[in-house]
Amino acid sequence: MAKNMLIAGNWKMNGTHADLAGLGAFAGLADRARDGVSVALAVPHTLVFSAAQLSADTSLSIGGEDCHHKESGAHTGCVSAAMLRDAGASFTILGHSERRADQGESDADVHAKAEAALAAGLDIIICVGETESERDAGTAQSVVGTQLAGSVPDCDTARLTIAYEPVWAIGTGRTPTPDDVAAMHDHIRAALVSRFGEAGESVLILYGGSVKAANAEELLHVSNVGGALVGGASLTVADFAPIVEAA
Ligand code: PEP
């Protein structure tokens, strides 16, 4: 039986309202995806409202790329989970390695944001992944295990997705071998089952890091891979479509 999958795009700090002219094509992909395949797009805060309006009545889910852990208050430049929800987001990415590196986000920060997002009604995609030096040192699994334990709150697992994104594979064109992806995804599955029991079996674990048309088919069929988190190749429907079609 074909497995359930999520293919999620992450536009990062890219896109203006002009780029939403192409959103109908993304929504069309979501509507035509095979049964069991969900399609989502995380966009910059400035585009969430318009993207959500444009994709209303389609199968495309729109989400944010981060949120603050507080509901409101004196946090200039930040956006709360409730604000994202109000703008029409149904989910948010949290703990992306670019935020962990650029904004110094810790596992505790990601945990607090995740609780805030869930309380506001957003589903969550929590990112974990090792750096190249951690992989070279043989500590990739323990690094990811620590990130999972510290970042993931106790929650309804139906609202939780994990994205395994080796930092050294993001935007570089390099990917781990399918065996390495399988080993890490099996490790994450075991950690989820040990934490959540049987409910941990059905949490989707996305692979992220240089997913593109040429490697999607192979990566999406690896053990315990429940979809993909896609950065660069989600910016145009031409690059994104073959990934959705491979799911
Ligand atoms: C990402 O931004 O989460 C990502 C995986 O980027 P890319 O697909 O460009 O490597």
UniProtKB/TrEMBL annotation:
Record's superkingdom?
Bacteria
Localization recorded for this chain is: Cytoplasm
Question: Known InterPro entries for this protein?
Answer: TrioseP_Isoase_bac/euk, Triosephosphate_isomerase, Triosephosphate_isomerase_AS
Q: Which residues does the entry assign to the active site, renumbered to this chain? A: 96 (electrophile), 165 (proton acceptor)
Catalytic reactions of this protein: D-glyceraldehyde 3-phosphate = dihydroxyacetone phosphate
> Which EC number(s) are documented for this chain?
5.3.1.1
Q: Which UniProt keywords apply?
A: Cytoplasm, Gluconeogenesis, Glycolysis, Isomerase
**Similarity remark:** Belongs to the triosephosphate isomerase family.
Q: Which NCBIfam families match?
A: tim (TIGR00419)
Describe the subunit structure. Homodimer.
PANTHER family on file: TRIOSEPHOSPHATE ISOMERASE (PTHR21139:SF42)
Q: What's this protein's name?
A: Triosephosphate isomerase
Lineage of producing organism: Bacteria, Pseudomonadati, Pseudomonadota, Alphaproteobacteria, Sphingomonadales
Quick one: which gene encodes this? Answer: tpiA
